[in-house]
Design a protein that fits this description.
The chain has a 5-stranded antiparallel sheet with strand order 1-4-9-6-7, with no helix packed on it. Strands 2-3-10-5-8 form a 5-stranded antiparallel sheet, with no helix packed on it. A 5-stranded antiparallel sheet has the order 12-13-19-15-17, with no helix packed on it. It has one helix spanning 4-15; strands at 38-40, 48-50, 53-56, 60-65, 75-83, 90-94, 97-102, 106-113, 119-124, 128-139, 160-162, 168-170, 173-177, 183-188, 197-210, 213-216, 228-236, 243-248, 253-263. It is mostly beta strands.
Length: 265
């Protein structure tokens, strides 16, 4: 038979609430009313809060202070939903730092490094709506979580190709096809911030006719002229970076794949 003390402990366990979710630093991010928001426009008066969302009929902003102080230099998770999109773009700003521009309907999540202000700004243009704004944090890079999106190059999504004779992404690889100038393939992480720590960077040089492949993350990695899979560790102290680049030297003809960056310590 169970003791009364055990029964009492079980009762407390059943009544004790579970851990609370992270606090939303934006009051009325669901736009149940216009309370707390200041709206600007170009004089047309078509930027409004109605029907549970913020709608931009012209270029402008809606802003408010966060309900708890932001810490400059730290990262915050910013989530929101864009709907009714017809054109222009939506961009969140936190503490004076801009997030990514969004030009399609969808629910988005990104990390923004807070600047010196205590304000969230919704920047939009004709015509789109935004709703369900949630800001939580600060957060930091977790261990053993992939920071590179689409490092298998299944498409060109998320990558910016650069250079006088840029590489191309096709057939599941990043391909340099000769020509002068360094060929770069760059991505800015919007998944997690890159905080001080030790990071493991891996990529595969699939094939090579000429030139070398290398990565850039908190400095350039070792140039690789022989096909194979390569891993290096990068230690970040006070240097902030959130950009990952896979590259090939001038004149290179080669293919790369499986680009990965993870924090390991």
């Amino acid at each position: 038979m169970r003791s009364r003390a055990l029964d009492f402990r079980l009762l407390l366990a059943r009544r004790r609430p579970g851990p609370a979710g992270p606090e939303n630093l934006i009051d009325n991010g669901t736009f149940d009313s216009a309370a707390g928001w200041t709206i600007t426009d170009q004089g047309g008066g078509t930027n409004i809060i109605a029907d549970g969302k913020l709608t931009f009929g012209e270029n402008g902003t809606a802003f408010r202070d966060t309900n708890s102080p932001l810490v400059e230099g730290l990262f915050y998770q910013v989530e929101y939903t864009v709907s009714d999109f017809e054109g222009s773009a939506f961009q969140a700003q936190l503490g004076g730092t801009n997030g990514l521009a969004r030009s399609a309907n969808g629910t988005y999540s990104e990390l923004i490094r807070a600047g010196p202000t205590q304000t969230f700004v919704a920047n939009g243009g004709p015509v789109l709506s935004v709703d369900d704004i949630v800001v939580t944090g600060p957060v930091e890079t977790p261990l053993n979580v992939e920071l590179v999106v689409n490092g298998g190059f299944d498409s060109a999504d998320g990558w910016t190709l650069g250079g006088a004779n840029p590489a191309n992404i096709s057939g599941g690889t990043l391909n340099a096809a000769g020509g002068s100038g360094t060929k770069t393939c760059t991505q800015t992480s919007s998944i997690h911030p890159v905080n001080a720590g030790t990071y493991e960077v891996t990529f595969t040089l699939v094939s090579r006719v000429a030139g070398t492949a290398f990565f850039s993350f908190a400095g350039s990695g070792t140039g690789r002229p022989v096909p194979g899979t390569y891993t290096e560790e990068r230690v970040i102290s006070d240097t902030f970076t959130q950009t990952f680049t896979l590259a090939a030297t001038s004149g290179a003809t080669l293919s790369m794949d499986n680009f990965s960056v993870k924090r390991i310590a």
